[in-house]
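Minutes, project check-in
Item: structure for the 387-residue chain
Input as provided by the requester:
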Amino acid sequence: MKKIYLDQASTTYPKPECVAQAVFEYMTDNGCNINRGCYENAYDTEEVILETRELLCELFDGPDCKNVVFTKNVTESLNVVLKGFLNPGDHILVSSMEHNAVMRPVRQLEETGVEFDRIPCNAQGELILEAMEGLLRPNTKAMVMMHASNVCGTILPLKEVGEFCKAHGLKFIADCAQTAGVMPISMKEMNIDVLCFTGHKGLYGPQGIGGFILQEEMIGKITPLLSGGTGSISHTEEIPEFMPDRFEPGTMNLPGIFGLHAALNWILDTGIQNIHQREVLLTKLFLEKMKELDSEGKKIRLIGKENADGRTAVVSIQTPGRDVSEVAYLLDKNYGIMTRVGLHCAPSAHKTLGTYPMGTIRFSFGYFNTEEEVLLAVKALEEILWN
């Protein structure tokens, strides 16, 4: 049975061939660390790391490439930023659609005296912009918000929120896990102070590599969460003040960065607009066929926006009268179609969308999926639900 991978929102697969090749070549032909060795291979490795920082700044219209910090994933990035920036007595705003990568650190910080409010979203996952003003307090310090929902794909208005933050003196921390690499993002135009990303989703890199990018004025405002050897100023036991060493102690995931370096070049060569258009095409096809299949919505409930406008290539459904876990199991067992089922680490989003506590079956498409695979998924649902 041919396997069909429709869980791209979790991690993209397959990766471009150049990604695996880059990791393999680093592991077999180089393998050394940076900032430690005074030899040619170490310098060559450092050059690739520098180029990767530069590529990320190019992709996200970021500041100086030294302000790119590598972490394991977007969850670590958000933890470093939130726990290093917020103090007892501070107040922040989040959207009601946030992933637990934001909400769990925020809940943890709440125990120390940090306060937060959720900006409500409607049943399609759209942010209610006019509600933001009324949630402001004298001690509101920042806005923390995802760019797009991992549950229903709805895109949140980063530019408008960035303008609001600038007008009210708030710092804007953006979680771009679901959009980095598949949608244009400009830190400058969107007034983003900190952009957090992961490498293994739309950036098409390996798992275990992510990071964040800081505007210059944020560097001294965030206390490093981790400390240790950096290979620089080794004569002192104090944390370096300069970037990126201030936030990058210990041995980095160099194989992951080499893979990300290759992936970023592939994205820039392919074109973000082309990647996005491909994903929109597949999403539109899936939505249209699902509506044809169940025009009255008796057996399939589409979650979120009804069409492909204003959403990523993520579509969640519920199956009234059938357990979503059973349907997802049958999709995999009988048809080889891999999806994700459950709450997707985002209970707040599901409560907003009215899908809590059952959760949803999530179909998510990527650049390498085909129209045939989309049609096979629809056909499989028809056979499961109508037989």
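Outcome recorded: The longest strand covers residues 140-146.
No further action items on this chain.
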